[in-house]
Amino acid sequence: MAAVQLKNIVKHYEQTPVVHGIDLDIADGEFVVLVGPSGCGKSTLMRMVAGLEEITGGDFYIGGQRANDLPAQQRNIAMVFQSYALYPHLTVYENIAFGPKLRREPETSYRPRIEAAAKMLNLVPYLDRLPKALSGGQRQRVAMGRAVVREPALFLFDEPLSNLDAKLRVQMRAEIKSLHQRLKNTVMYVTHDQIEAMTMGDRIVVMNAGRIEQVGKPLDLYDRPANLFVASFIGSPGMNLIAGILCMEEGQTCLRTANNLRIPVPASSARQGQAITLGIRPEHVVVRPSGIASIGTDTSTNISTNVSMSIDSIEPTGAETYFYGKLDGILNEHTCCLASRDRLSVATGEKLPLNFPIELCHLFDSQTGLRLN
Prior knowledge:
- The chain is of the alpha+beta class.
- It has 8 helices and 20 strands.
- The chain has 2 domains: 4-232, Rossmann fold (3-Layer(aba) Sandwich), CATH 3.40.50; 238-365, CATH 2.40.50.140.
């Protein structure tokens, strides 16, 4: 096992910068997930750690040793790829044993490790099979077994579950997390799936355009996103965002929308007249019961915590139902999402009266995108 330090890591392809000054410390035995949209630089960063890409600038340390110039085979790192990278003509046992054989280890040395890894990963019945006789999940476990047998200081996973179906992804997420809890190795895990990031990582590193947007524990990122990008990226569906201007109405801090609707918002460090963005999670949007008067509404000033949504589409998932639509009186192009565990008898084209509880709202500076205190 080993701690990892990245200090001002930069990557250029010819004259094009793709990674911009990454600083990150990973503790010994920690499971850290790099998450972000396609092209954000997360896989490039991992490949630099693995020694598969040259580091243009900055310093990379593993176990306290600077490793920029160490060849990949000397870094004591094992990498699990999206494509499994198994040899089709070798059996499961031979695939797992390929590394030790290449290093000319005696079979008496590595066979017990293979047997232990196979038992840990439920591969014992398949050791004599070729990869073509295995399912996708079994092939990925073989790739993991090959990494485990190496006994590395650092595990790297590069989108290992992307080729699996939804049910297998859930199963493999649990197996990888269980493997980490048994071995206690340091893990860097790359994914574009924020559900994987939320369920697996001790900490999450959110990347965008070659930069780190926020680092923190999964629920810290969910409950207190540092900026608009993290707010919209973390969470499925993403946070609802409504732009406007901060104003005061009868002593109440409000967001005034382009259509002159005022929505009460939490007090913040923003000043009157500042462009701000209100954020609220879909599960925090409340359906106002039909026939109940609008609490906290003054029609003379149009101050309201209540907003109506014209429903465009409905997505039942079983446990929850997602309602998507336009918010009346705000912006025609703005789509809102409500996540409800209630079986609401509502059809597309109808309107839902909504409430945005002030205590569950988030505020961001519209220009900088940063969270407002």
